[in-house]
């Protein structure tokens, strides 16, 4: 498994490749106003969102986040509401909706991010005020999460257009490794208020980890650190799509891409409801 903390070049290369594939897909869209699969956005708005993420993290690396202040919600908002508000507002930052233009802007945004972060260490902190006041992510995590955005939204576009969109196991593992930093932030207070559950996540071809959900909080721990209520065994790409709400746990299980076992295997179907979509 390629870890985001042991060198950024594999993650950077995967990001560049995903952007290239997404750009080709975007440029080929003949009905950009069509609603994207499983989203309320059009295809063009989805592409614009893909540009926004790359620009935002590039500006964070440059220390020029002032241009994003008008899109950052009030600090008192809970994480899910804050993220939704930021996502909706920031679409205005990329008003273009022509497929060819969006494909070009996506490539330029990726080049800008990769250029400004070249040579920086994986543990370099980046300010992420859209997640909360004083919040930061390490560069390695941010790069892998940007890869996740390209992979998942590329999947949205490809599904809508009826095109293939393979997600390699190595790519998915990079994103899931970085997503460990986000899971504690993404807990849903309404569904976890009275919860005390431990999941053991096993990723095919990669390492796993333990997720402890306890009364509105979540913690990531080493695999085997405590007794699990439910063991989840996932193909990494399937876990990525379940985590982003693109397929259901049932669909992953039915296709042989996931299984659950342990003392309370039925808790697999409850897992996704404990966290908001990224």
Describe this structure as you would to a colleague.
This protein is of the alpha+beta class. It folds into two domains: 4-179, Four Helix Bundle (Hemerythrin (Met), subunit A); 189-274, SCP2 sterol-binding domain (Nonspecific Lipid-transfer Protein, Chain A). The protein contains ten helices and seven strands. Strands 5-4-3-6-7 form a five-stranded mixed β-sheet. A two-stranded antiparallel ribbon has the order 1-2. α1 packs parallel to α5. The chain is globular. It starts with 8 loop residues before the first helix and ends in a 7-residue tail after the last helix. Residues 1-6 have low confidence and may be disordered.
Query: Uncertain segments of ≥5 residues (pLDDT<50)?
Result: 1-6
Helix content: 40-55%
Distance between the termini: 23 Å
Strand neighbour order, sheet with most strands? 5-4-3-6-7
Gyration radius, to the nearest Å? 18 Å
Using the coordinates above, name the CATH class of the largest domain: Mainly Alpha
Q: How many separate domains make up the residues? A: 2
CATH architecture of the largest domain: Up-down Bundle
SSE ordering: HHHHEEHHHEEEEHHEH
CATH evolutionary superfamily of the largest domain: dinb family like domain
Mean pLDDT: 94
Structure annotation, total helices: 10
Helix-strand makeup class: alpha+beta
Q: Strand-residue fraction?
A: 5-15%
E-strand count: 7
- What kind of sheet is the major sheet? 5 strands, mixed
CATH topological fold name of the largest domain: Four Helix Bundle (Hemerythrin (Met), subunit A)
Anisotropy-based shape: globular
